[in-house]
From TrEMBL:
Species whose genome carries this gene: Planktothrix rubescens CCAP 1459/22
Official protein name in the record: Superoxide dismutase
Reaction catalysed by this enzyme: 2 superoxide + 2 H(+) = H2O2 + O2
Assigned keywords, A-Z: Iron, Metal-binding, Oxidoreductase
Residues holding Mn(2+): H28, H80, D162, H166
Name of the top EC class for this enzyme: oxidoreductase
Quaternary organization: Homodimer.
Length: 200
């Protein structure tokens, strides 16, 4: 069964007031994400992977140089879908409840978490992703290069930020730190993060 491009969980202009433009989403979702879906379907057509789930394809092809094309496209489909859900209009701020307590317990404070997340997103050289993950019951911040995704390492992703330049260049040009700050202050969907935490 062929994969399809999932719809954004908000209108493409819903984050305009939070400095992410409809033009960015028209390219990022409508072209980049769509291309990963199209390429993946072509690469797995007629293979033993064609009837597998996205997660199964990612895990089956990770670290296999002969299947790098399949892995890269499958992981980017998964990562982008997860990223859209990490965003919401009027987001940002701080989490509440059990998630907030866990962040304070594992990082020392919410501010320390923010410091670590900013550092991961800022220092990821070139293209990649910054993540909040659950690792054996402990919250950790990590980063992955290119199409890398924590699910291949048995980690549970809770939140991600895309730091590929195409994610922010139309709105922030080369100012990645400003894009990161804006994400944390105005865009993080803490409800989605809390749902992932509760389900882990």
């Amino acid at each position: 069964m062929a994969f399809e491009l999932p719809a954004l969980p908000f209108a493409d202009d819903a984050l305009e007031s939070s400095k992410m433009s409809a033009k960015t989403f028209s390219f990022h979702h409508g072209k980049h994400h769509a291309a990963y879906v199209t390429n993946l379907n072509k690469l797995i057509d007629g293979t033993g992977l064609a009837d597998k789930s996205l997660e199964e394809i990612i895990k089956a092809t990770a670290n296999d140089p002969n299947k790098a094309g399949i892995f890269n496209n499958a992981a980017q489909v998964w990562n982008h879908t997860f990223f859209w859900n990490s965003l919401k209009p009027s987001g940002g701020g701080q989490p509440t409840g059990a998630l907030a307590e866990k962040i304070n317990a594992d990082f020392g404070s919410f501010d320390k978490f923010i410091e670590e997340f900013k550092a991961a997103a800022t220092t990821q050289f070139g293209s990649g992703w910054a993540w909040l993950v659950l690792n054996n019951g402990t919250l950790k911040v990590t980063k992955t290069a290119n199409a890398g995704t924590p699910i291949v390492d048995g980690l549970t992703p809770l939140l991600t930020l895309d730091v590929w330049e195409h994610a922010y260049y139309l709105d922030f040009q080369n100012a990645r730190p400003a894009y990161i700050e804006n994400f944390l202050n105005q865009l993080v969907n803490w409800d989605f993060v809390a749902e992932n935490f509760a389900a882990a």
